[in-house]
Design brief:
The complex is a heterodimer of chains A (114) and B (110). Chain A is mainly beta and 114 residues long. In chain A, 0% of the residues lie in helices and 54% in strands. In chain A, strands 2, 4, 5, 6, 9, 10 and 11 form a seven-stranded mixed beta sheet that branches. In chain A, strands 1-3-8-7 form a four-stranded antiparallel beta sheet, with no helix packed on it. Chain A is globular, with a radius of gyration of 13 Å. Helix content of chain B is 0%, strand content 60%. The chains are: A mainly beta (114), B mainly beta (110).
Chain lengths: 114, 110
Amino acid sequence: DAGVIQSPRHEVTEMGQEVTLRCKPISGHDYLFWYRQTMMRGLELLIYFNNNVPIDDSGMPEDRFSAKMPNASFSTLKIQPSEPRDSAVYFCASSLAGNYNEQFFGPGTRLTVL
Amino acid sequence: KQEVTQIPAALSVPEGENLVLNCSFTDSAIYNLQWFRQDPGKGLTSLLLIQSSQREQTSGRLNASLDKSSGRSTLYIAASQPGDSATYLCAASNDYKLSFGAGTTVTVRA
């Protein structure tokens, strides 16, 4: 079975540009999570969805960040406008509530904002 | 807010030695605790998940214990190998949200 799929794997953009990160969770999983990893702050939860509905977005740093999950197999994290301090690795993870919510992570998107 | 701490931050051992990685958390009302491995520039690989009702979980050379009352979990890796070199992260789950420690970076010397 395919794991969590993220695209792109690497993104380099200039300050002020819009960035869209994509995630395909493991088929059948009912929870989807977006995390950000930086050297300074480690891994932080940004937002999570249950059955495509956002449950907790308290980790989203600013209004420049938004996330959607239009269906069970696709989610996006958008940053507009991007800033250099948004440079980080963004991970998507999915889980199944019936499996004790064991989370499985995608390979991540390394974002560099110049 | 759940706070997770991992000690030590880094560890270097000769091949064959047993590894002991520590994780502590402040809120004992956890749903589960998960241990991950992260290789440089890679994603996270789930190693073990301990349910809140369990005391330990084993997979091959890996054994993880959980003591909710003291807010501690320990990951044991037996007979370490150079391929075990990586960063190990623990994460405590509350209401489906994972709070991560900063990780322990392990180097196993051949």
